[in-house]
TrEMBL record:
Domain VWFA: 319-500
Name of the protein in its database record: Chloride channel accessory 1
Gene: CLCA1
Phylogenetic classification of the source organism: Eukaryota, Metazoa, Chordata, Craniata, Vertebrata
Entry keywords, A to Z: Chloride, Glycoprotein, Hydrolase, Membrane, Metal-binding, Metalloprotease, Protease, Signal, Transmembrane, Transmembrane helix, Transport, Zinc
The keyword Transmembrane belongs to this UniProt entry's keyword annotation: yes
Organism for this UniProt entry: Anser brachyrhynchus
Stored Pfam families: CLCA, VWA
C-alpha cells in the first residue's frame, strides 16, 4: 500500500535529482579550444575507431593544419593561427611509444572528426551548425579519403584552405556564400538585367557551363536558358586566375583568394546562407564582431609567431570509479535504495564491455568496496552489484571520496604508467561539505573526468566546479535516478558498444488501472536489450509481447532481493525487430509511480544505430530565448521525417511538451539536416531546467538524407580561355542512401542552468523562409508562420514592406513602401502562409525586381526582427540563342520567366495562338508562322523550345491558365 508519506517521498525525490555531466550539453561548450592571445590552443582532432590504421592520415592531418595555420594568419590579416593541436588515435590502432594518454579530451568533444560516412556518398567536408549567425558549430567532418586522395585537391582546393573555410563555420558562425540549390539569380547592373552566379565577391569571373556525360565520356557546352534561370545542371566555372582576393567562404580553392568578403566586396544580392542567416552582413564583419577578434590584436610579421605543435593521444580502455555517498542523510527519502537501483542498471546494462569499474563509498571517511574490475562477462557485472551500498550513516566528506576514487586507478595496471589521465569518476552525493575547495586543484591535476550527480537542494554548490574544471557541463534531471546514470556513456566514438535508451517513461497509475504502450526495436539495435520496470510501492502485474506475439510474464523478469522495487528482463541474442507491447496494472490500493526503461545496443558493428542527442542552449538574439535541439542521425546521415517531442521540466513547475521541427523555420536553421529545433519560451524563473526528448520514426514516413551545406564541389576551372572540367560529382539517387531504417524509438536527455530570465515577453520569431514570385502582374508571397512567442502560438498581424532597392528595405524597413495586408490573419506557428498583392505605383515590365520583407507583431505589440528579404523578378531573355558571353565579369547571360494569364473560356487553339504571339511580342521578336497546335500530351512548360520551330523562343510559359487548362 502506498502511503501519503511514500508518495511525497517519491515526488520530492523526482524533483531533487540533478546530474552535472559533460556528455549531453556539448553543443554549447564542448570544444576545448581557447585563444591564447592570437594562437588557438588545444584544437582536438579525433579519428573514428572504425577507420583502418594508416599513418598517412596522421601525417596529412598535420600538414593540413600547418598549411591552414599560415592561410588563416593571412586571411585574418595577421590575427589568428593554430598554436597547439591534439590528435586522438583510436585504441583499435597499434600502441606506439609516441602516443600519450588522454586527459579530459574525448572523441565526443573533438573539433574535427575523421570518419568514413555510413554510406559511400562522397567525401564532401562539412561543418555541423545548429545555431544562427555568430553561433559556434558542433564539429568539422573529414573523410579519410579526403585526407589521403590527392586527386580531391583539385575538386575542393588545398586541404589547409578547406580547413580554414570550415573553421570559419565552426568558430565564428558564418555561412557559405555559394548555394548549390540556387546557383544563379537575376540581378540589375547599370539598369540592365542579367543572370549572375551566386558568389562573393560578384567580381569573380567565369562562365556557365553544362557538362553531360555518357559513361566515362563527357562533353561541355554553354548553358541554355530554361524558364526562370539556366537549365538544370548548369554550373558556374570560374577562371583559375582572378584579380579578386575574396572570398574564402565562396571558393577558397582559387589561388588568388586569400581573404573573406568584407563590407566593400560583399555581394548582398546573392541568395546564399550568409545573407539569409547574417542579415546581409559580410563574413568579415561577422568575424570582427566575435569575441576572438575583440580579444586579439594584429601580430607583426609575415608569418605566425609559432609553429603548430602536435600531441598524439591514444584512447585507452574506459576506467570508471563509482564514488557513492552513504552518509546519514542518504537514508532520507529512500535515497540509498534509489542509488542502489540506478547504480545496478549502470553496472548491468550501461557500462560497456571491456571497461574497468571500481566502487568507493564515503561518509566522514572513504573506503574501497571494489577495486577496478574489467567487464568481461555478466558474472563480473553481478559481482560488482554485490558491492553496492545498502546502508547509510555518518557525516559527509566529499573530498575523501574523490581522493579515494582517484587512488583506485593506481592499484590496477590497465595501461603503462597506471595514471588517472582519462579516467572517470561518477560522484553521487546529497550533502554539503565545507572542505570541498581543498581538493579542487587535485581534481584538475588528475586529468580525470568527473560526472556529478547531486541529490537534493542541500548538495554542495561546489560540485559544479568539479565538472567545470574537468571539462564537464551541467545537467539536471528532475526524474528517476536511472536516467542520470544512463546518460553516462563512453566518449570514445565507438557507438556500436554504447548502451542506447529506447524508452524511459514514468507514469502515475491509479489503483487497479492498466496502462499499455509500445516501444519499437529497429534493425540497427537489438543486442543486450533490457526491459526494466520499477515501482514506488506495490509490485504491479505486468507482461510483455514481442512482435511475433510471444509473451513474457512477470515470472520471466528477474527480481533482486536487495532491490525489491524493480524487475528486469534481458532478451537473449538479438531482440526481434518491430513493436514490443507492454501492459502494466497497478494492483496497489492507491496511485503509484511506475517507470519503464528499455535499453539496447547496436545489432552490428558495421551498421551504426539510429542515434538521438538532445541539447538546450540560450540563443544569442535578444531577448535570449532558450532553444531546444535534437539531432537524429544514423552514422553521419540525418534522419528525416521523425516525430520528435521534447519535455522540459523544472522543480516545482508543471512539465511543458513541445514538438521539435526540422522545417528550416523559427529556431530551425536548416531544413532537412536531421536537427529538430524549437524555441522554449515558458521560462518561469532561474534555475536548472531538464530536457527529455522522445524521437519516434515510422517506416512509412522516416528516411535518410544527405548533409546539406557541404563543401563546394568545384566543377572545373577556366585556364587560358579553355574550360578544364573536374570529374563530375557522383550522382546520388535517393534510393542509394536509403538503408532499411524502418520504425524506431529513442530517448535522450539534457539540461540547462539559467540565471538571467527575461523580464519582458518574447516577440514572434524572425521569418527566415520568405519566398516571392511574380504571377500575372501579382506578387505571390509564401512563408512559415511565426508564433506569438517566438515559434509558439499565433501572431496577431503582419507588416509587409516592399522596395525596388534592397538596401532601402534592409536599412530603412519602416520607411519602405507598405503593402496592405489588413485582410491577412496569421495562422498557428509552423503553418504555411501565402499572400498575393499587386504593387502600387509600379509597372511590372521586363527587368522588374521587387524586394519584399515581413515582420510579425504579437498581442503585446512586440515585433519580430525583419525577415529574410525575398526577391520577385519579371525578366524575359533578350535573345533566343544561348549566351555568347559565358559569363565574363557578369557571371552569365540572361534568363526569363514569362507568366501569361489567359481567359479560361477561350479555346485551346486560341489560347495557344495568343500565348505564342505574346511571347514573341514581349521578347522583341518578329512575328513568325504559328507552328501546328501540339497534340494533347505533348505540351510541357518548355514546348516552344522543344518543338524547335521557333528558334528565338527560349521561354517557359509557367503558371498560366494556358498550361493548367491544357
Amino acid at each position: 500500500m502506498l502511503s501519503v508519506e511514500t508518495g511525497q517521498i517519491m515526488g520530492v525525490f523526482r524533483s531533487f535529482i540533478f546530474l552535472l555531466s559533460f556528455q549531453l550539453l556539448y553543443v554549447a561548450n564542448g570544444s576545448m579550444v581557447w585563444l591564447n592571445q592570437t594562437g588557438y590552443e588545444d584544437l582536438v582532432v579525433a579519428i573514428n575507431p572504425s577507420v583502418p590504421e594508416d599513418a598517412n592520415i596522421i601525417l596529412n592531418t598535420k600538414r593540413m593544419i600547418k598549411d591552414a595555420s599560415n592561410y588563416l594568419f593571412e586571411a585574418t590579416k595577421h590575427r589568428f593561427f593554430f598554436k597547439s593541436v591534439k590528435i586522438i588515435i583510436p585504441k583499435t590502432w597499434k600502441k606506439n611509444g609516441n602516443y600519450s594518454r588522454l586527459k579530459t579530451e574525448s572523441y565526443n568533444k573533438a573539433d574535427v572528426i575523421i570518419a568514413d560516412p555510413f554510406l559511400k556518398y562522397g567525401d564532401d567536408p562539412y561543418t555541423l551548425q545548429y545555431g544562427g549567425c555568430k553561433e559556434k558549430g558542433r564539429y568539422i567532418h573529414f573523410t579519410p579519403n579526403f585526407l589521403l586522395n590527392d586527386g580531391l585537391v583539385n575538386i575542393y582546393g588545398e586541404r589547409g584552405r578547406v580547413l580554414v573555410h570550415e573553421w570559419a563555420h565552426l568558430r565564428w558562425g558564418v555561412f557559405d556564400e555559394y548555394n548549390t540549390d540556387a546557383p544563379f539569380y537575376v540581378s540589375i547592373n547599370s539598369e540592365k538585367a542579367s543572370v549572375e552566379a551566386t558568389r562573393c565577391s560578384a567580381g569573380v569571373i567565369g562562365k556557365p557551363v553544362l557538362q553531360s556525360c555518357s559513361g566515362s565520356k563527357c562533353e561541355e557546352r554553354d548553358c541554355k536558358y530554361d524558364g526562370q534561370l539556366y537549365e538544370a545542371g548548369c554550373k558556374f566555372v570560374a577562371d583559375k586566375n582572378q584579380n579578386h582576393t575574396s572570398s574564402i567562404m565562396y571558393m577558397q580553392s582559387l589561388p588568388s583568394v586569400v581573404a573573406f568578403c568584407d563590407k566593400n566586396t560583399h555581394n548582398g544580392e546573392a541568395p546564399n546562407m550568409q545573407n539569409k542567416m547574417c542579415n546581409y552582413k559580410s563574413t568579415w564583419e561577422v568575424i570582427m564582431e566575435s569575441e576572438d577578434f575583440i580579444n586579439s590584436s594584429v601580430v607583426n610579421g609575415s608569418a605566425p609567431p609559432f609553429e603548430t605543435t602536435f600531441s598524439l593521444l591514444q584512447t585507452q580502455d574506459r576506467a570508471v570509479s563509482l564514488v557513492l555517498d552513504v552518509s546519514g542523510s542518504m537514508a532520507s527519502y529512500s535515497r540509498i535504495e534509489h542509488l542502489y537501483k540506478a547504480a545496478e542498471v549502470f553496472l548491468l546494462q550501461i557500462i560497456e564491455v571491456g571497461s574497468w569499474v571500481g566502487i568507493v563509498t564515503f561518509q566522514s571517511s572513504a573506503s574501497i568496496q571494489s577495486r577496478l574490475q574489467q567487464i568481461t562477462s555478466d558474472a563480473v557485472r553481478q559481482n560488482l552489484v554485490k558491492n553496492l551500498p545498502t546502508i547509510a550513516s555518518g557525516g559527509t566528506n566529499i573530498c575523501a571520496g574523490v581522493r579515494t576514487g582517484l587512488q583506485v586507478k593506481y592499484n590496477v595496471e590497465i595501461s603503462p604508467g597506471s595514471v588517472t589521465y582519462g579516467s572517470e569518476i561518477v560522484l553521487l552525493t546529497d550533502g554539503e561539505d565545507s572542505g570541498m575547495a581543498a581538493c579542487l586543484n587535485e581534481v584538475k591535476q588528475s586529468g580525470a573526468i568527473i560526472h556529478t550527480i547531486a541529490l537534493g537542494k542541500a548538495a554542495a554548490k561546489e560540485l559544479e566546479e568539479f565538472s567545470t574544471i574537468t571539462g564537464n557541463f551541467s545537467k539536471f534531471l528532475p526524474s528517476k535516478l536511472i536516467e542520470a546514470f544512463s546518460a553516462i556513456t563512453s566518449g570514445s566514438g565507438d557507438i556500436s558498444q554504447q548502451s542506447i535508451q529506447l524508452e524511459s517513461k514514468q507514469i502515475d497509475i491509479k489503483s487497479y488501472e492498466w496502462i499499455n504502450s509500445t516501444v519499437t526495436i529497429d534493425e540497427t539495435v537489438g543486442n543486450d536489450t533490457f526491459f526494466v520496470i520499477a515501482w514506488s510501492a506495490t509490485k504491479p502485474f505486468f507482461f510483455l509481447k514481442d512482435p511475433k506475439g510471444k509473451e513474457y510474464g512477470s515470472s520471466d523478469f528477474t527480481l533482486d532481493n536487495l532491490n525489491s522495487n524493480a524487475a528486469r528482463l534481458g532478451i537473449n541474442g538479438t531482440a526481434e525487430v518491430g513493436d514490443w507491447h507492454y501492459y502494466i496494472k497497478n494492483e496497489g490500493t492507491t496511485t503509484q509511480n511506475i517507470s519503464i526503461t528499455v535499453t539496447s545496443r547496436a545489432a552490428s558493428s558495421v551498421v551504426p544505430p539510429v542515434n538521438v542527442a538532445a541539447y538546450m542552449k540560450k540563443a544569442n538574439i535578444a531577448p535570449n530565448p532558450v532553444v531546444v535541439y535534437a539531432e537524429v542521425s544514423q552514422g553521419f546521415l540525418p534522419v528525416l521525417g521523425a516525430t520528435v517531442i521534447a519535455t522540459v521540466e523544472k522543480d516545482g513547475v508543471a512539465p511543458v511538451s513541445l514538438q521539435l521541427l526540422d522545417n528550416g523555420a523559427g529556431a530551425d536553421t536548416v531544413k532537412n539536416d536531421g536537427v529538430y529545433s524549437r524555441y522554449f519560451t515558458s521560462l518561469k524563473s532561474g534555475g536548472r531546467y531538464s530536457l527529455k526528448v522522445s524521437a519516434q520514426g515510422r517506416n512509412t514516413t522516416v528516411r535518410l538524407g544527405l548533409r546539406p551545406n557541404r563543401a563546394l564541389y568545384v566543377p572545373g576551372y577556366i585556364e587560358n580561355g579553355k574550360v578544364q572540367m573536374n570529374v563530375p560529382r557522383p550522382e546520388i539517387a535517393d534510393e542509394d542512401i536509403q538503408a532499411k531504417l524502418g520504425s524506431f524509438s529513442r530517448t535522450s536527455t539534457a539540461s540547462l542552468v539559467l540565471d538571467n530570465i527575461p523580464t519582458v515577453g518574447f516577440p514572434p520569431c524572425k521569418v527566415t523562409d520568405l519566398d516571392a514570385l511574380i504571377e500575372n502582374e501579382t506578387v505571390v508571397l509564401s512563408w512559415t508562420a511565426p508564433g506569438d512567442d517566438m515559434d509558439v502560438g499565433k501572431a496577431v498581424q503582419y507588416i509587409i514592406k516592399s522596395s525596388d532597392n534592397l538596401l532601402v528595405l534592409k536599412d530603412e524597413f519602416d520607411n519602405a513602401t507598405s503593402v496592405n495586408s489588413s485582410d491577412l490573419t496569421p495562422q498557428e506557428a509552423g503553418s504555411k502562409e501565402t499572400f498575393k498583392f499587386k504593387p502600387e505605383n509600379l509597372r511590372i515590365e521586363n527587368g522588374t525586381i521587387i524586394y519584399i520583407a515581413v515582420r510579425a507583431v504579437d498581442n503585446e505589440n512586440l515585433t519580430s526582427d525583419m525577415s529574410n528579404i525575398a526577391k520577385a523578378t519579371w525578366y524575359i531573355p533578350p535573345k533566343a540563342s544561348e549566351p555568347s558571353d559565358g559569363g565574363g565579369s557578369g557571371g552569365g547571360g540572361s534568363v526569363g520567366l514569362l507568366c501569361l494569364a489567359l481567359p479560361r473560356k477561350e479555346t485551346i487553339k486560341s489560347r495557344y495562338s495568343k500565348a505564342y504571339k505574346s511571347a514573341l511580342t514581349l521578347g522583341g521578336l518578329i512575328d513568325q508562322t504559328l507552328p501546328p497546335l501540339p497534340r494533347k500530351g505533348e505540351v510541357s512548360p518548355h514546348f516552344l523550345k522543344e518543338r524547335g520551330e521557333c528558334q528565338g523562343c527560349q521561354y517557359a510559359i509557367e503558371g498560366s491558365t494556358f498550361l493548367s487548362g491544357w
